[in-house]
Amino acid sequence: MGTEKILFRLEQPHGPGNIYVAWQKGSGMYLATTGVDSIINIFDRYGEVQERIRLSSLCQGFAWDNNGDLLAMISQGPELILWDSNTNKKNSIDIGLKDALSCLIWAKKTYSCIRQTFKKNYMWCLESR
């Protein structure tokens, strides 16, 4: 076994409290984190912040698509936020639901995701890329 190497250290990037992490699938170039401050930080593999995305409330879920191209984020508001790792651009999409979103899951082979409220499930599809 070789020795372990610390790539970078995150010291309370969201203040005191729990930190939630999602490592980019595929290339593994980005690490997304969130916590009690309602901000998604996207770090590159060297520990440099590439993007800070402020949510309207605490993050309810965030996940990379299977290719690692898109990071989807939901909070307690009626919008779905997408961050594209290829262009470093953020898009906010009002999905027109009155209920708070509670869960987000990407489909395995298409650019589709399931959003769940506390009452119903919804499927949302992106245009073909």
TrEMBL record:
Keywords: Repeat, WD repeat. GO terms for biological process: cilium assembly; intraciliary retrograde transport. Residues 20-110 form the WDR19 first beta-propeller domain. GO terms for cellular component: cilium; intraciliary transport particle A. This is WDR19 first beta-propeller domain-containing protein. It comes from Callosobruchus maculatus (Southern cowpea weevil). The lineage of its organism: Eukaryota, Metazoa, Ecdysozoa, Arthropoda, Hexapoda.
